[in-house]
Structure formats: C-alpha cells, structure tokens
Amino acid sequence: MIHIKTPHEIDLIREAGRVVARAFERIAPYVEPGVSTAFLNEKIDAFVREEGAIPAELGYYGYPASVCISVNEVILHGIPSERQILRDGDIVTLDLVAKKNGYCGDAARTYLVGICGERQKRMVAIAEECFYNAVSLVKPGVRLGDVCHAIEETASKHGCTVAREYTGHGIGREMHEDPYIPCYGTPGTGPVLKEGMTICIEPMIFEKKNAVRVMKDGWTVVAKDGGLTAHYENTLVVTSGGYEILTKLDDSGKDEAI
Ligand code: MF3
Ligand code: CO
Hints:
The chain is of the alpha+beta class. Helix content is about 25%, strand content about 25%. Strand 4 and strand 5 form a beta hairpin. Helix 1 (about 5-25) packs across helix 2 (about 35-50) and helix 3 (about 120-135) runs antiparallel to helix 4 (about 145-155). It is globular, with a radius of gyration of 17 Å.
C-alpha cells in the first residue's frame, strides 16, 4: 500500500534528507586517493549522529556498516573495509540512509577519485542524467511506468544497461515502502503518482552488461563482466505542481554537493 504523507511527515523526511545531503557535502573533501572506505564510513557515521540522526543501514537485515560504499564494478551494498584503499581513477558510490525523528532520507552519490578518465566521468554523468530525465516527469497523475522507462531509455541511449534485480522505492517511516521503482518500465502502466507520495528514484547503471553476482559476504553486488557501475539517488516528494527533492542542503533548490 502506498502511504500518502501529511505535510508534517514531509517536513520530517526533508529534515532526514538534509542530514544525508550535509553528510555528502562534508565527506566530499575526504574522497581522495589513499583513503580507506572504512575511514569514509567512520566519518559518515559521525556526521549523521552529530545531526541527531542515526545511520539506518547499520544493522538493517544485518548490514554491518553505516553507509554502503561501492567501488567501480561494485554496483550495490559494498561493505567498507580498512583494506580497501581508494586509488586515482576509481569511482565510488556512497549510498546513505539517515533516520531522524522516526523518518528516513535516502540518497546516493558516485564520486570520482583523484584523476579519472573519460570512461569514469561518463558513467557518473549518465547516472545523474538518468535521474534527472526520470524525475522531470514526476507530477500528480503520471504513471510510474513512464518515470521508470525514462531511466532505461537514457541509459541505453548511451549504450549502458540498468539494474534488473534492485529497484528504487517509497520511503517514510521505513527505508523501503511501496511502491517499487525499477530502473525500467512500460509507459502508461503502474501506479498513478499522487501529491504527498515520497519516493526514491535511483538509477543503477552498468557500463556493459547488467548481469550481477553477490559475493561471499552476502552483500556486495558486482557486475559479472567487471565493467564500471554508477548510482545516483534522491528522495523526493510529489507536489501539486511536480516534485521537490528532499535530500538537499537547504531550501534554495541546491540538491547535491559533489
Ligand atoms: N540505501 C539502499 C537503498 O537505496 C538500501 C541499502 S540496504 C542495506 O535502497 F542493507 F544495505 F543497508
Ligand atoms: Co534507496
């Protein structure tokens, strides 16, 4: 069941979303060659708690860290580690959920580490383009299949593929609520968007094939062919005239901090 949020609930999700946006803004200077993904996890954990929120991924179905950190061919749910040191030319996704006053905000950013080539820059740009092409369609009365279709259409225009097994989602008290929001869809199908729905649109993009494998740790999802992957996500609310991104720094409309 899709839960329509009250204005008060939307304020609380916006507050949780701001915690996520601030954490991304503060972590950006640390995403450099030589740093371990465990160090980034520790920093993010502290940034979230300083805001009176909790990192909601920690312990979620047993997930062992405060933020998912996924490097290069890892598309999702990478586990931060002391042994994993970022190097020039890596692309690294931080996917963070903060819970504050009982409500969640969820976003993901893919960062370029040090000196990167066109191949890396292109992947990061495509994931963002997929997000913005999809979100630009969001308004009351539109069917979700139209929005989801725009993700895959944009990715395939660039010769990329999208995740099949993992999706975006509704959000609120729970990190994952109805509806599911795949990275592909059939126009004119699916639930009708209504004012007050809060959703996460999250393009997960593969450079080549979208076949995945889950590693022995039970979490880390990698592209089987070893190609690059990128992921970009925001929480948003459907408004009377369209949408508002809730994982942003302030009310100026600025919504990212890479
Ligand atoms: N943040 C992810 C999402 O975008 C969910 C991570 S689940 C966890 O939906 F268990 F890994 F934390
Ligand atoms: Co999400």
